[in-house]
Amino acid sequence: MELLEGEREEIIKQVGEVMEKYQSDREKLLPVLQEVQGRLGYLPLLAMEKVAEAMDIPTVDVYGMTTFYNQFRLNPPGEHEIKVCMGTACYMVGGQIAMDSFERRLEINEGETTADRKYSLERVACVGCCTLAPVVVVNEMVEGHVTPTRVDGLLLSLDGEQKEGAAEAGTADEPSSDEQPVEAEGKHDREGEQSK
Amino acid sequence: MSANSTEKLYEKLKMQAEEKYGPLEEKTVIWVGTATCGKAAGAIDVREAFKKEIANRGLNAEVLEVGCMGHCYAEPLIVISKPGFPPLSYGYVDDGLVKLLVDNYLENDDPCFEYALVALEPNDYFPTFSDFPRGVYENKTILGLCGFIDPEEIDAYIAEGGYSALSAVLNQEPDQVLDEIKKSNLRGRGGAGFPAWRKWGQVKENPEQEKYIICNADEGDPGAFMDRSILESNPHQVIEGMIICAYVVGSDTGYFYIRSEYPQAVRRINTALKQAREKGLLGDSILGRDFNFDIDIFQGSGAFVCGESSALIRSMEGKMGMPRERPPRLVESGFRGKPTIVNNVKTFCYVPPIINNGAEWFTSIGTAESPGTAVFALVGKINHSGIVEVPMGTTLNQLIYDVGEGLPGDKQFKAVQIGGPSGGCLPESSLDLPIDYDSLQEAGAIMGSGGLVVLDEDDCMVAIAHFFLEFTQKESCGKCTFCRLGTKHMLDILDKITTGQEDDLAKLDILQELCEDVIAGSLCNLGGTAPNPILTTLRYFRDEYEAHITEKRCPALMCKELIAYYIEPKKCSKLCNACVGSCPTEAIYTRDDGLKAIDQEKCVKCDNCMKACPPEYLAVIKLSPPSLVEERERK
């Protein structure tokens, strides 16, 4: 993913601070990466390069660590982070169905972020709320018993928040105009079926 | 310093703690369970609602946060203890119930028995835990305080006798303590069941000065959360166990290896460590003795294989968590090449009660080979899911039908999956098996970390095997060829079977063979146990595999590619449009005769229409194989 303006400087600054704190100790590579991700939200390639440089190790060693451990993400998180639980209990009662619905609605695959960086979608193993299965964690809030219609509702309410925010800032609300043609198209299809 | 002064120091701590927690009994106290599961169900709102009502009405009552009582099915769960009444627990609490309880119970004296779940003390009005089947079987040796004390307050633990085992141990020789642990025959609770005393003894004998103690809280099994629950509900018991272990083997540094996915557990352990240091129970000269020990936290980064102790140590050293060949064993050369003990959270938890009550007490619980209790996360198709602690040797039948109160609805029991991705699926015929390390292994499952998932007739065994294999395949570290590539091949075969692309029954034999090869060709237990879900399902549910292959039929109606949704014209009502609105892809249309039908091309099989169809019609059904739809439409 392309870096946005000003991100480059921010990454260099944050990595520098973390490396100073841990004194570039090789044994502390995992905590270092955790803290960098904690500050930036993800681990951009540039950050990995800077960490490797400071520790005087090949960048591929750092890349190996970030791809080995599930905790690290290489894509920036969306404004709204959606995590679909795929623990055993959730899987059994339709976790995959919830995941499919999000993928369909957001038009991204699991592990990706929408191009406008509004939503990111991840799968997680057991959040320990098996009695509420299937579970989805939206911005740290646990939502239980998630069906496809609930997915629609969740996304609508998140869009709504966004619209309110946009209205306050005095800008036009783009998302709603995007939504409408899809709706209309769908209805059209159904009428078509009926006449058959 | 003399033994006497250690005791005195402890007595002083205990008196202070009791002073703080004694007077509470004269006042109404509301305990709200706020472990992760409670929070997810809305415990924070409940806590705030109580606080608000109490403040508004100026009542003399206090709201306290506790951990998890293990009755997850009834979250959010609270306990109200009012002077003159037995402490009562209420489940499924929401704003309405909060108001009702404040109105009737806190302000007046009506305990609203109709909403109470259970009383915590014997009384003349309401049944207690021991009056229910679950209470008959449960024996809470390590979960006893979970959910009943404030996990963020060390005094709450000390007031209940916490750290008394440590105080007693410091007056004994390490050998004496080790002997007690040996007599108790405490086996490691991480899954393999290796005797704890043997590890402890070997590290103790090692002349090396630097020794490490690591608490393995890298609970990666999807569907198990016992360790998290303990860390969040009663962190001090684990810490006390670790300090005792350190005293026995002569170590001065310990680590908690906790998954970073458990932020609340990390926070609570941090608080607990800080408080223990302030009380002189950690750090330099513990309880006035010439014994120094401190504990640090290391946050794991989410790799299932890091639950394997040599991989865990490598990841602590800042490397990729890949297991290494042994010998040398970790007790000789572990973290930083020094002798290291890695024990599970629960293993350390058992130490204080064993010291307090003696080894004989411990061996009197459970079976001869596996003494003590087993902790399970009981989930899936079961009425009373939650965390339960039963003596070893309890049968699966008792656990599922008595402790868990059976399956919901009139669904038929199919299998129970024990031990997570490394475990196996056992059929109904195995329900009389006693739960202990050896019996489960014989049946093809393992004790594992203690995840126990109940499956009913709606669950496809091939899909379950696929699910677990997908997990282990992803988590394989890639070191051993068989684990890396063998699991991939197996997954490919299962992929084809579950999507109806496999026509050759002989593939099942190849699958079986691959399973055996992966077990033989893998260094660590991840590869060594990854085929278990497949081996057991092949052994007990081969007919389901065959139905997928020969008939392209999923008997449990679960595999998406092998089912189709269909609206039965006979049952559908012309006037109802519930399914049309619920369909996310507009696949449902109205036929010329007014009935509804599904456009199979557009259907994404999301199950929504089936849920939306009102119970008086129940017109939406699933058919497998999908070709049945055409047959029916032709009629």
Describe this structure in words.
With 196 residues, chain A is an alpha+beta fold. Chain A folds into two domains: 62 residues; 88 residues, Glutaredoxin (3-Layer(aba) Sandwich), CATH 3.40.30.10. Helix content of chain A is 56%, strand content 9%. Chain A is globular and about 50 Å long. The C terminus of chain A is likely disordered. In chain B, the strands form five sheets. Chain B has a five-stranded mixed β-sheet, with helices on one face. In chain B, strands 11-10-14-12-13 form a five-stranded mixed β-sheet. Chain B is of the alpha/beta class and 635 residues long. In chain B, helix 10 packs parallel to helix 12, helix 11 packs across helix 14 and helix 20 packs antiparallel against helix 22. The longest helix of chain B has 19 residues. Chain B is built from 26 helices and 18 strands. Classes of the chains: A alpha+beta (196), B alpha/beta (635). At the A-B interface, helix 2, helix 4, helix 5, helix 6 and helix 7 of A face helix 2, strand 10, strand 14, helix 18 and helix 25 of B.
